[in-house]
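Morning, I've got a small favour to ask if you have a moment. I owe you a coffee for this, so here goes:

…
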Amino acid sequence: MSAFSDLLALSDLLRSEETHDDEHQRKQAFVTPGSIASPALPKGGIIDQGFPLIKKDPKAIWDEDEVGSDAEDEEDSDDRKRPKHEILYKQDVMTEDVFLGLGDKDPSTAHCDAMVVKIVFPGHKLREIDLDVKAQKLVAQSSRLKLSTYLPYPVKHKEGKAKWDPKTDTLIVTLPIVRDDDW
């Protein structure tokens, strides 16, 4: 109870003399948790205290803070730019797939065998680039650029191959895609 009386004493010092008598009378009254009335809540149950209200999607499965992002495990102080990159798909086809139509492959990504990630590092040499590939994530970085991205399909990261094209300063990473029958 002494902390409460200290707060009231501090409040008395900060208020003007004309409101001093009203505060003194309020201090005399006995205060319990039940005597503190909460304000009536508006529709939606949110009290507007001058903060911008965030509308929640009623059909949303997860809240924004529950969903991870690409930058979730990165440092906030990392101000390196993201290099230009593209993800392409590679498909092994035979003559019966192309000319006779006897194969069961179609041009969709569901029938692709590998993923090719091309990352442009302008003005870099191969020795300046660090590459780390996991089953679902690729991190390629240098002292000036950093690409950290999740891959659209799980890959066989230990069987992947990387090649450097010095003419275009492009790192080309080929990763075999893991299919359901490969698990």
